[in-house]
Write a structure and sequence with these properties.
Structural class: alpha/beta
Shape: elongated
Radius of gyration: 32 Å
CATH topology of the largest domain: Rossmann fold
Helix content: 10-25%
Number of helices: 9
Number of domains: 3
Length: 441
């Protein structure tokens, strides 16, 4: 089964934690801190692979993660960086945020490779925190969090000309007669379940790509049958050839079929019918009755009124095809060769960032402020508040994360108590906060 949609979860690598260690060598009794930095987490990269034509690879595996950075080591050794993960997709794939539906990137044209999610930065080792007043820091910086997102992948076939029509009207036959494509052809409905592409070569070293869009049915725009999967591929086509059964086989009425096709396209997206349209009445060699002749004339008159170029063809016997292809090429030349590329709707730089982690504030009574949440729990786990002024590191974290500022908005003043889980601190203004505020100004 052709796969043109997929939903996958992707996560970049977490940054490795900084290391806490001290130089211990013979004749160097107090060598100082030498904890190395953590490694950077791996990136999630999306890359176009011209050898792919579907999203089949993502149907069975739905979770992807880049490598985490490793923790630093002693002797100032840097942790190993996490391994990047490259996801390969066919050209024309749209990357969307599955939660919001917003477009992240259109992997078309020159956009062939993007860093979708960056890995977390590695944390600094304790060697970076030595100061004249704190020469043996027993704490290090944790690595940055990974980034994660659930992606909706949607493939939209890239072709110059798209063949539209109800099942069994001869689209696949036409494509096989005028290009190098070899779609399956048989006299039953829904032979074509996959969009097929073929290169049409004309005289004078001219060519264009033609796509056989699987047959539509009434209700396709409402998702009936495989409607959505078929209709989405029309977006990329610059010219549309609507093929109808000119002989009215199986009791069909050519003009009604054409109007129904247009109605389905317009219901799905009105922009589709703004594209140049050609109408081709196929199977004209099968016309035998006056009723069939009249039905064909009604179709031709309607196309003339709508200013649609109209052609009578027989794909099976290769009759009338060349003028049809010439008209398609003429229309392509008239509208230029710019590919339809969709604009991103998100800020890729901050995509998937876990706004670090949530913080919960409470002010249960006068003079007491509670600060909790995963972010605080995580930081406490990496900080030694009892030794070597590790509290100074934590205090700086409180200021840089805007926690002190938020508490002051809630009414906190000097002398009040800040309680973080089982730890209690008395708040006082200090030079760290003043310095931080002066930088902001």
């Amino acid at each position: 089964m052709f796969a043109d949609v997929a939903k996958i979860y992707v996560r970049s690598g977490k940054g490795g934690n900084g290391h806490v260690s001290f130089r211990r060598e013979l004749f160097v009794p107090a060598g100082g801190p030498d904890g190395g930095d953590g490694g950077k987490g791996g990136d999630i990269i999306v890359e176009v692979d011209d050898g792919l034509n579907s999203l089949e690879a993502f149907r069975h595996k739905t979770k992807y993660a880049a490598g985490d950075g490793q923790e630093g080591d002693g002797r100032r050794m840097h942790g190993k960086n996490g391994k990047d993960l490259v996801l390969k997709v066919p050209a024309g794939t749209l990357l969307k945020d599955a939660e919001t539906g917003k477009l992240i990137s259109d992997m078309s044209g020159e956009n062939r490779r993007i860093v979708l999610l960056t890995g977390g930065k590695g944390g600094l080792g304790n060697m970076h925190f030595a100061t004249p007043s704190m020469q043996a820091p027993k704490f290090a910086q944790p690595g940055q969090d990974a980034r994660e997102i659930t992606l909706q992948l949607e493939l939209r076939v890239i072709a110059d000309v798209g063949l539209l029509g109800f099942p069994n009207v001869g689209k696949s036959t036409l494509l096989s007669m005028c290009s190098n494509a070899r779609p399956e052809i048989a006299n039953y409905h829904f032979t074509t379940l996959n969009p097929h592409l073929g290169v049409v070569n004309l005289k004078g070293d001219r060519s264009f790509v033609m796509a056989d869009i699987p047959g539509l049915i009434e209700g396709a725009s409402d998702g009936v049958g495989l409607g959505f999967q078929f209709l989405r591929h029309i977006h990329r086509c610059r010219v549309l050839i609507h093929i109808v059964d000119g002989a009215g086989s199986e009791g069909r009425v050519p003009l009604e079929d054409l109007k129904n096709i247009h109605a389905e396209c317009e219901s799905y997206d009105p922009e589709i019918l703004k594209k140049p349209v050609i109408v081709a009445a196929n199977k004209v060699e099968l016309i035998q009755s006056e009723e069939q002749e009249k039905a064909l004339k009604d179709l031709e008159k309607y196309c003339k009124d709508m200013h649609y170029p109209f052609f009578k063809i027989s794909a099976a016997s290769n009759q009338g095809i060349y003028p049809l292809l010439e008209e398609a090429y003429k229309l392509l030349e008239g509208i230029g060769k710019d590919e339809m590329i969709y604009e991103s709707e998100v800020d890729l730089e901050n995509l998937g960032a876990v706004e670090s982690l949530p913080i919960k504030y409470e002010h249960p009574e006068e003079g007491l402020f509670l600060v909790e949440g995963p972010k605080m729990e995580k930081m406490l786990g990496y900080t030694n508040l009892e030794a070597e002024k590790g509290f100074l590191f934590f205090q700086r974290f409180m200021v840089e994360q805007g926690i002190i500022k938020e508490l002051k908005k809630m009414g906190m003043k000097e002398g009040d108590t800040i309680k973080i889980f089982s730890h209690e601190f008395e708040y006082y203004d200090d030079e760290i906060e003043d310095e931080n505020e002066s930088k902001e100004e």
